Automatic annotation (TrEMBL), chain A:
Segments forming domain Leucine-binding protein: 25-386
The organism's place on the tree of life at top rank: Bacteria
Keywords in alphabetical order: Signal
Signal peptide region: 1-21
Protein name: ABC transporter permease
Family: Belongs to the leucine-binding protein family.
Gene3D superfamilies according to UniProt: 3.40.50.2300
From TrEMBL, chain B:
Family: Belongs to the binding-protein-dependent transport system permease family. LivHM subfamily.
Gene Ontology MF terms: transmembrane transporter activity
Descriptive protein name: Branched-chain amino acid ABC transporter permease
Membrane topology (UniProt): Multi-pass membrane protein
InterPro entries: ABC_transp_permease, BCAA_transport_permease
Compartment(s) of residence: Cell membrane
Listed transmembrane segments: 6-30, 37-57, 77-102, 109-129, 175-195, 216-240, 260-281, 293-313
Keyword terms of this UniProt record: Amino-acid transport, Cell membrane, Membrane, Transmembrane, Transmembrane helix, Transport
CDD domains found in the cross-reference section: TM_PBP1_LivH_like (cd06582)
């Protein structure tokens, strides 16, 4: 038999690709490049939870979950290439951990009918399911984060921020600019003034921004950073002796690797989070038995329990629960992306369910619908204890100011719908 | 008055930042001067050197992931820590070894090729070293502590508060970087002027063929220059890595050196320093005065604009060799 080259390629792709009956959840990860240290930990947590389900439970509903990885290096073009290369392998859902890649994939997933899940990142107004049918961003988005931070500061100031100044130090990118409008609106509502301080990526040099902070002495600094920008900002804040307890990062500026380079000087730094911290959860016993001990953990399990690992694992938990819901609704274990979308729109993760999973109080309660793809938006604060070398949760889950945010989401999603020619669905 | 005092603080900090840029630019200059090669991998050399230093300090096992994957073991550390001075010396040796390998495996095979070919080879080298560093030492961010102090200088703050009524911020790490840069430049100049090897290096820089005709070994000079550039990269890696932790982004500090080189000239050690100072002060002052009117984040692009303005008047850079071609 004579085999042609295309036939050989097709055979190789079929042999290397996932078995079509499996549940395919591509992991568009980045383990290289300037953000590789963060991306590696997230990808490890994401992989390990699905490995646990496969090893302990035989997958979800009896279907093994395949998690093929594709390296994006946090590069938008590579991310799109990864999407194109994997979308016909039976892929159900994508979670690229990049706002830039997300913006490129939003129109594509609507055409290809794939689910895009962007927990804590991506396009904030995707919360409006009437416009963004295929995109979900629960449990919280960038605007939720800004609002929860302001609510925390209100609590710290007996309910008033009148006359206070907040400086926003942000990554000068689509991601970093996300909270500006929200903070401006909240500033008008609560009487604080906002100073915007962009930092050019990657953020290795921030002297100008921190000299300005030292001159103007804002009461608080909120940071939307990622990668090296976080480490440098925390070090510069320590250098100018800015009080760390008045410095709050978004959840992407709240990992161990963000604070450790500054050593003891980072003590007291705060950040938002929507997932639990540490390893004091029953799930980790199962992870140890079924994944780490048998040597099946991603990267040898060296990042298990870190903040970013936990966030990657939490994303996998939500996806797994949505798959489970979809299977129950469809009456079959072999679901399609459309059925997974329905699963997400009917997803309910209660505190009781989190306890059953082995992660009590690990995340906020999630209840989604056709209209609401973003959940409650609840987040909490954690604080770095440099002596113990760990994060400590310092607040309960707090709901953001929906009065302000709902109007902004409606406005932004309506603008996108007009621009993309989308007629909002009836929900 | 306030604005004047603030501007003075910005200028001082700009000078200090400029020194940090110059430390990176120096490595480029050394290699370009001696071999005419623009070493695209200089930023990655700084990353590789810093990763090696911190890993030696912490007693990390090289290629631990590969070893563990192949043998099913779980070794990551030797269980010892190495004093900073010894670790720096060992890293310098590693950089000499790397220079030898680069000459042996890359440059030797490209003798007589066009500069663009050598430039392309250094691009390949950069990507290879990035990957090698990851495989050898892992992609995690590593905290680097060689005992350099960080944070505001209380003495300067108190003195300026007394003189101007406003205490200036000067980072102690930047003061150390300035001192080290001065010593480094003095040592490099002394080496080039007063040692046999230094004179040989200058001879090669002036004319390869003439240097070869009097018995100077081009291969030895290349190994020596890449070793020195590796050591300069180590110093730059220590300074930048102390602030941010050692991570991939260190390789991107090369981008900060490019406008410095354009401005100071690719062949002048003093040019790298002066260029660094001008870029540092220029970008910080521009951000201070014009930045707030245009939304900030002007430093990256303004450094290049400033370099381009200088290029219009002096294409070879402030201290570069004048290009004379007879037709």
């Amino acid at each position: 038999m004579k085999l042609t080259f295309p036939a050989l390629v097709a055979a190789a792709v079929m042999a290397a690709g996932p078995v079509l009956a499996d549940l395919v959840v591509p992991n568009l990860s980045y383990r290289t490049g300037p953000y590789g240290a963060n991306g590696t930990q997230y990808a490890d947590g994401f992989n390990d939870y699905f490995t646990l389900l496969n090893e302990r439970d035989g997958g979800i509903g009896g279907q093994i979950v395949q998690v093929p990885e594709c390296e994006t290096a946090y590069n938008t073009e590579k991310g799109v290439e990864c999407y194109e290369a994997t979308k016909d392998t039976g892929a159900l859902i994508y979670n690229p951990l990049s706002t830039g890649i997300t913006y490129q994939l939003i129109p594509k997933v609507a055409v290809d009918k794939k689910v895009l899940y962007t927990p804590g990142y991506g396009r904030t107004s995707a919360k409006n399911g009437r416009v963004f049918e295929w995109v979900f961003n629960a449990p919280a988005n960038y605007w939720d984060g800004a609002s929860v931070a302001v609510k925390y500061l209100l609590d710290q100031n007996e309910g008033s921020l009148e006359g206070k100044t907040i400086a926003l130090v942000y990554h000068n990118s689509a991601y970093g600019k996300e909270p500006i409008r929200t903070l401006q609106e909240l500033g008008e509502k609560h009487g604080f003034s906002l100073t915007e301080l962009p930092v050019e990526a990657p953020g290795q040099e921030q002297k100008s921004q921190w000299l300005q902070i030292r001159r103007e002495q804002p009461d608080y600094v909120i940071m939307y950073g990622w990668g090296v920008m976080n480490q440098v900002a925390i070090q510069e804040a320590a250098n100018i002796r800015f009080p760390m307890e008045n410095f709050i990062g978004i959840w992407w500026a709240g990992s161990e690797i963000d604070v450790q380079p500054a050593g003891a000087a980072a003590d007291g730094y705060k950040s938002l989070t929507f997932n639990g911290v540490g390893m004091d959860y029953p799930l980790y016993d199962d992870l140890q038995t079924h994944v780490i001990d048998p040597g099946k953990a991603s990267q040898g399990g060296q990042h298990v329990g870190s903040a970013v690992y936990s966030r990657g694992m939490y994303a996998a938990v939500v996806i797994a629960e949505a798959i489970r819901t979809a299977q129950e609704m469809a009456g079959t274990a072999e679901i399609t992306p459309e059925q997974l979308r329905d699963g997400f729109e009917n997803l309910s993760i209660t505190p009781e369910r989190l306890e059953e999973i082995g992660l009590p109080d690990f995340g906020p309660e999630i209840a989604m619908s056709c209209e609401n793809h973003g959940g409650s938006g609840m987040a909490r604060l954690q604080q770095w204890d440099a002596t113990a070398g760990q994060w400590t949760l310092i607040t309960e889950f707090t709901e953001p100011d929906q009065e302000v945010l709902s109007a902004l989401i409606e406005e932004d999603s309506a603008a996108y719908a007009a621009e993309a020619g989308i007629t909002p669905r009836d929900c | 008055m306030d604005q004047f005092v603030f501007a003075a603080e910005v200028v001082l900090n700009g000078l200090m930042t400029g020194v940090m840029y110059a430390l990176v630019a120096l490595g480029f200059v050394l290699i370009f001067k001696a071999s005419g090669v623009f070493n695209y991998a200089q930023g990655v050399l700084a990353l590789f050197a810093a990763m090696t230093l911190v890993s030696i300090q912490n007693g990390q096992v090289p290629f631990a992931h590969l070893i563990n994957a192949a043998l099913g073991t779980q070794i990551h550390h030797f269980g010892w820590t190495v004093p900073a001075a010894l670790a720096i010396a060992l890293t310098a040796l590693v950089m000499v070894g790397l220079a030898f390998l680069i000459e042996k495996l890359v440059l030797q095979h490209l003798v007589g090729q066009e500069p663009i070919i050598l430039f392309m080879a250094t691009i390949g080298l950069a990507y290879f070293l990035e990957g090698l560093g990851d495989v050898m030492w892992g992609a995690d961010i590593k905290t680097l502590d060689v005992g350099l102090p960080q944070g505001i200088s209380d003495g300067i703050e108190a003195a300026t508060a007394q003189w101007f009524g406003y205490g200036f911020f000067i980072d102690r790490l930047d003061l150390w970087a300035t001192l080290i840069a001065v010593l480094l430049v003095a040592a490099l100049v002394a080496f080039a002027q007063y040692t046999k090897q230094g004179r040989a290096m200058r001879a090669v820089a002036d004319d390869h063929q003439a240097a070869l005709s009097v018995g100077i070994s081009l291969r030895f000079i290349w190994v020596m220059v890449w070793s020195i550039a590796g050591f300069v990269a180590l110093v730059a890696g220590i300074m930048w890595g102390t602030k941010s932790g050692v991570q991939f982004s260190l390789s991107l500090i090369a981008l900060k050196a490019l406008p410095v080189l354009m401005l100071g000239g690719f062949t002048s050690i003093p040019g790298a320093i002066v260029g660094g100072l001008i870029i540092g002060v220029g970008e910080k002052l521009f951000e201070f005065t014009i930045g707030p009117m245009v939304g900030g984040a002007t430093e990256t692009w303004f450094a290049y604009v400033l370099a381009l303005i200088f290029l219009v008047f002096r294409p070879q850079g402030l201290f570069g060799e004048r290009i004379i071609e007879r037709v």
